[in-house]
Description:
The protein is mainly beta. 6% of the residues lie in helices and 60% in strands. It has a six-stranded mixed β-barrel.
Amino acid sequence: MKRExxxxxxxxxxxxxxxxVKALADSGCTYIRINKQLVKEKQIQTKLINFSFEVFNxxxxxxxxxxxxxxxxxxxxxxxxxxxxxxMNLNGTDMFLSYN
Length: 100
């Protein structure tokens, strides 16, 4: 049995691009993440952060270093929020959304 929650989300980027993305809601996720490949393909505007940090997958392999974020407005059904998503490799999913 799969224990994941996938959903369709509407995302508006800082440079006014409206995108429909496949998002995975993940209670173990520390940061909201957006796929590096999606950012490149859709030419989404990023912002450099003042520091970098390493990110590891659940199997403890290194995913990479985070150096950029994407300011976004995300909408799922009637819920809307302004957020910043870290840019990284997500292998098949557009976004990871953290929830508590």
